[in-house]
Structure formats: structure tokens, C-alpha cells
Amino acid sequence: MLVAIVVLAAATILIKGAGSLLPEIPDAVAARLGGLAPALLAALVITELTGADGIPRLDAKAAGVGVAVVLAAVRAPFAVCVVAGAAVAAVLRLA
Predict the structure, then answer these.
(1) Cα separation of 15 and 6, whole Å?
(2) Where does residue 54 fall: left (phi above 0), alpha (psi -120 to 50 degrees), or beta otherwise?
(3) For residues 40 and 66, is the Cβ–Cβ distance under 8 A?
(4) CB-based contacts of 87: which residues, under 8 Å, 6+ apart?
(5) 93, 68 in Cβ contact below 8 A?
(6) 18: part of which helix (H) or strand (E)?
(7) For the segment 37-88, what is each residue's pLDDT rounded down to a tens digit?
(8) For the whole prediction, is pTM greater than 0.70?
């Protein structure tokens, strides 16, 4: 895990440094980096929803993510998805 964090940190520094040195990012690089943020977000969500053994846990977080996914599927605004998912998770944690 530590190696992955160090590699991602180094890649981030290189990408940010290259962005300030290049007047224009080549189309091939932009196309490859375009899907990086959603992939990292999906990996973080899966990591958060599974335990150390890799088995998904069905708890308040999972319900909140489920609500956010359903709202995103019906094309609700991103802010609505986030707030509704957080509200569902909060209400279930209180219960």
C-alpha cells in the first residue's frame, strides 16, 4: 500500500510539473489522463466499502453510496447525489 501511495504521489508531481512546462498538453496524453480521476474515485469507494479481507460490508456507507449511484443513474446533479448519499448514511448511523 505504501508503494502505491508513493508511486501515485510521484506521478502526481510529474504530471503537475509537466503541465506548467508544456504550453499545450498533447491530445494523446489528455485522452489517457481523462479517465484517471473517475478510476481513482471508484477505487477509493471500493476500498472504503470492503474490509481488509475484500468482502463488501453492508452498512450505512454502502446505503449512502447506493443512493448516490441511483441518483447519478437518473442524471441528478452531482451535488444532489453527494448530499443525498451523505444524508442517507447519516440517518442510518443515527438509527
Answers:
(1) 14
(2) left
(3) no
(4) 64
(5) no
(6) helix 2-21
(7) 888 888 887 887 887 777 877 888 889 989 999 999 999 999 999 999 999 9
(8) no
